[in-house]
Input
Amino acid sequence: MDLQANLDQPITLGPLERSLIPTGLFIELPHGFEAQIRPRSGMAANRGLTMLNSPGTIDSDYRGEIKCILVNLSNEPQTIHPGERIAQMVIAKHEQISWNEVAELIETDRGTGGFGSTGVSG
Output
């Protein structure tokens, strides 16, 4: 679902400037679901506008207005207009877990290998 800017007037973001853009949308999600807020690829590719904290998560107990943290990563000012599509929202089911504290973790071939440790490209 596309989310639109709920603005009274346009907002211009300078290079590297960010702003919390209201959508005018309030939702009530069932327990076990979340809303994921994602940037629009066209805004990123064509204008350098994307979202910080992406994907953003709206929890099922949140009742406030959904707002999007837009950032201008381009070298030019970018204007957000009232009603403009600024983000996408996906509703997703998620699992709840309970944690068990242990003294040791089960060993794997990867072990503690981090970024880039699962293979070499080329």
Notes: The chain has a mean pLDDT of 93.
